[in-house]
Amino acid sequence: MRARIGIHKAQLQIDLREVNLKQKPAEMLAASPKGTVPILVLENNQQSPTVIDESLEVMLWALVENDPDNLLHSFDQSALPMMLAIITLFDDEFKTCLNTYKAARRYREDNVIECRQACEVFIQELENRLHQGPFLMSAQESLADIALIPFIRQFAKVERQWYLQAPYPRVRQWLNYYLQSAMFTKVMAKHEFWVRIG
Q1: Count of CB atoms within 10 A of residue 154's CB?
Q2: pTM flag (> 0.85)
Q3: pLDDT digit string (tens) for 101-122?
Q4: With contact defined as beta carbons under 8 Å apart, do 193 and 20 qualify?
Q5: What CATH number is given to the structural domain containing 160?
Q6: Which of 81, 101, 79 is nearest to 89 (CA)?
Q7: Is residue 192 one of the residues assigned to a domain?
């Protein structure tokens, strides 16, 4: 999802291939043997194409190519390292807590509240940041905002009724801004699975 958001924000044209991860195409595995999505294959004049198979790396590639909204905040040399630090924190630590929280809820375990509270440490950090302005880094949208959307969306869905009354109004407003946007509708559009015939 966030790779698609990055490419959309960069206004780049790509050939999008939706794959069924239960029936991974041979071309996909040949490009990236680890067999996860996203995979961006960049054809070039060299003998073999360049392959990028991490969502954050796809986003960075896209925005280096074209960044019309200045999501990398080129006006501030310290901005990108700070963004990457926040994203890494959520990629590593928050994602682990979120997966535990989702599993506890799904399997009706008795530690759902404790798992949620572990996630809330990170959500509170975002709430605090959003007290300063409408976006996570400043008054202007950034890479950090678009990179964290998928994680916060997943968090919001685990216990929907609790989330709607939780003490994080600015996080809700920030997430709703994206979920109700034309950008999100376009990025989340369903595509037919890509199947190579013959």
Answers
A1: 16
A2: yes
A3: 999 999 999 999 999 999 999 9
A4: yes
A5: 1.20.1050.10
A6: 81
A7: no
